[in-house]
Design brief:
Strand content: under 5%
Number of helices: 16
Number of strands: 0
Number of domains: 1
Radius of gyration: 29 Å
Distance between the termini: 16 Å
Order of helices and strands: HHHHHHHHHHHHHHHH
């Protein structure tokens, strides 16, 4: 009886902890999204919306600047509250995943500081975010809030394109709509609150797998449809490739039984990661991939001058457009490997490779329970082919769909539904529902044996509305396992509940 009561109370406690943790995770997601997305939205509504260049940024309006300052302070306060409150209520966590998450940020921050870069909210947001996720250690299925913000982002982008096309459609600095041969729809290229249609597509494609975590089926289907419409309207080929990669990895996961998914999913993700390195190295044409071949060739040429530590995170914005003749709109290397090699050297490549490969391994391990993490990494690696998705000291707009999910993959406790934890040490104590205490010994009562002669039905404890079955022929062997799982277990559960209710009445 004591074990039963303890087990029941333990289950209620675990559920309460899970609900609290899920609420804190959602709070972190929404706080990061507001900080990264609201200022661009306000800028679209109150300030100039022309395309920025490397040498001359579009100035923020006073309202947009104020919103960025206020929401930045609110983000820091929210993250600190979450970290402190969760730290006080949860046990100690292994530090190794946190160090892995912080290592790329530390390296790129130090590399930027060495060349004179300052420190602002954009550079300190990443460590606070990953520390909050490390303390909370959410399961992947608790990241449904990311799906909601992705759907809201897609809906707002479409609203800009329909209701405010002068701000939501890609235009030249002169205000003329840019129409290219790759346009999938005749209304121009959708940018929404982003500076470029490729940036919008990149954001939505990376976050699309988390839309499948929205619980209500109809809302989930509608959310996926809204995101896909926005991606098609942006005409981002990179985003479309990323969606295809996520679907392919999901199909691979479904083609194998849960115990056997890990290897094919891991091999598929490894192939995508390898393509990120191989494609720019084997590309020889300058015109390949919308002139990305030229950007890669120039970047590799300059990177050879500083192969160990790279040229610094500000190279593309300071030197690349002039000395490298990359043009005024090339803000990065348009490939994760090329960009990291150029800005961070071989050290940066090693650091980010370790970060990515361990995340790959963990996502493959969790594919036995859920393939959301694998689908997310597939879309992430696919965007890294032609864009730069892993940033740590800038590009804050990607934080909700990149930094939070990767951190959750690396620090989460165990895979969903009790699967393997993927290799990290798990020092969290077992929940009370599995801690059974032995029952106290009953006194040895010398009672006469009951007379069972003439009894034709089994003697059992039954609940209301149950009727014991009659014996036909010989009585059943008591050593045999019951045929129905609703037998003794159900009766003992009901007995425990009645005893617990009786104790509460006392």
């Amino acid at each position: 009886m004591a074990a039963g009561i303890q087990s029941h109370v333990g289950i209620e406690g675990v559920n309460g902890v899970e609900r609290t943790r899920a609420g804190r995770v959602s709070l972190v997601v929404f706080a990061v999204w507001l900080w990264s997305m609201v200022p661009p939205i306000v800028q679209r509504l109150t300030g100039p919306t022309g395309r920025a260049s490397v040498t001359q940024e579009v100035p923020y309006s006073a309202v947009a600047t104020l919103s960025a300052t206020v929401l930045g302070g609110l983000l820091v306060a929210t993250l600190l509250v979450v970290i402190v409150s969760a730290w006080r209520s949860l046990p100690h966590h292994p530090v190794s995943p946190l160090l892995l998450l912080l290592l790329p940020w530390i390296y790129m921050l130090l590399r930027g500081t060495a060349e004179g870069g300052g420190v602002d909210i954009r550079k300190v947001a990443y460590p606070l975010i990953v520390i909050a996720i490390w303390v909370l250690r959410p399961r992947l299925r608790e990241l449904g809030a990311i799906g909601w913000v992705v759907v809201v982002t897609a809906a707002l982008a479409i609203a800009f394109g329909v209701l405010l096309p002068e701000a939501g459609i890609f235009r030249k600095p002169t205000g003329e709509v840019i129409v290219t041969a790759k346009s999938d729809l005749p209304w121009g290229l959708l940018t929404g609150m982003f500076s470029h249609p490729n940036s919008l597509g990149q954001y939505l494609a990376i976050g699309l797998p988390f839309v499948t975590l929205i619980r209500r089926g109809l809302v989930r289907v509608a959310g996926v449809a809204i995101v896909l419409v926005a991606i098609v309207w942006s005409s981002s080929r990179t985003a479309e490739i990323a969606v295809a990669a996520a679907v392919l990895i999901s199909l691979i996961s479904m083609a194998w039984s849960p115990p056997r998914r890990r290897l094919p999913v891991g091999m598929g993700l490894l192939a995508l990661a390898g393509a990120v390195v191989a494609v720019p190295l084997v590309t020889t044409s300058y015109e390949a991939f919308t002139n990305r071949g030229y950007i890669w060739a120039v970047s590799r040429q300059f990177a050879a001058a500083e192969p160990v530590f790279g040229l610094g995170p500000g190279w593309y914005s300071v030197i690349g457009s002039s000395a490298g003749n990359l043009g005024p709109t090339v803000f990065h290397g348009h490939n994760q490997f090329v960009h990291t090699l150029t800005t961070g050297g071989l050290v940066g490549v090693i650091v980010i490779s370790a970060y990515s490969l361990i995340a790959l391994w963990r996502a493959a391990a969790r594919s036995r329970a859920t393939f959301v993490g694998a689908a997310f990494l597939a879309s992430l690696f696919a965007t890294c082919l032609f864009e730069v998705s892993l940033t740590f000291v800038d590009n804050t707009i990607l934080m909700p769909v990149v930094a939070i999910p990767v951190a959750a993959i690396l620090v989460s406790r165990r895979a969903d539904d009790g699967e393997d934890d993927g290799g990290w040490e798990d020092d969290e104590p077992m929940p009370a529902r599995t801690a059974y205490q032995p029952l106290p010994e009953l006194p040895d009562l010398d009672l006469p044996a009951p007379d069972l002669r003439g009894i034709t039905q089994p003697i059992s404890v039954v609940g209301a509305g149950e009727s014991p079955a009659t014996w036909e022929g010989d009585p059943p062997d008591p050593r045999r396992r019951p045929a129905s799982p609703s037998g003794s277990w159900l009766r003992m559960t009901r007995l425990r509940e009645r005893l617990q209710a009786r104790r509460r009445r006392r």
